[in-house]
Each structure stands twice: as C-alpha cells, then as structure tokens.
Design goal:
The structure is a single chain. 82% of the residues lie in helices and 0% in strands. It is mainly α.
C-alpha cells in the first residue's frame, strides 16, 4: 500500500526537478540571445524558488552566463539520467 504513494512522490519530485532544469536552460538561451524575456524569466524563477523556501537558489539565476550554462546543462543531464533510471527500475 505504501509503494504506490512512494512511486507517486518520487515521480512528482523528479518531474519538478526536470521542469526546473528545463526552465534554467530556457533562461540561459534567453540570456545568450539578449532576449527581452530574460529578465521576466529570471524573476519568475526567483519567485518560484522563494515560494518553495529555496531562496538560496536565487544566486544561481544571477550568475554569469558561462557558469550558469554549465550548471544548467549538468543539472538537466543528471535529472534526465535519474528519471531514466527510475523508469528502468519501475519498469
């Protein structure tokens, strides 16, 4: 009975991490292209992490472009591997 709840919670956690990593990559792309959407995206990400009590992540959004790109791509790759591993184990 506990197993479906744990599976649901882990799917929710991995899905949230994957969504956050995707939004970080979008922020990098907006900053690279000097898009007018870069500042609103950074503001939305700041408010999102602040609402979750993770305000320390706001410094990540304000980083220079090169380290931000490396961190966001690494996070996206790690989360994608984690999701694939979870699906492999559950399958």
């Amino acid at each position: 009975m506990l197993e479906p709840i744990l599976i649901g919670l882990s799917a929710l956690l991995w899905g949230s991490l994957w969504g956050y990593a995707t939004l970080l990559i979008l922020l990098v792309n907006f900053k690279e292209s000097d898009s007018v959407y870069a500042y609103p995206m950074q503001t939305v990400l700041d408010r999102f992490v602040e609402s979750l009590g993770l305000g320390w992540l706001k410094t990540l959004h304000a980083m220079q472009l090169k380290p931000l790109r490396q961190i966001s791509y690494a996070l996206f790759g790690a989360v994608t591997l984690g999701v694939a591993f979870m699906l492999w184990v559950l399958g």
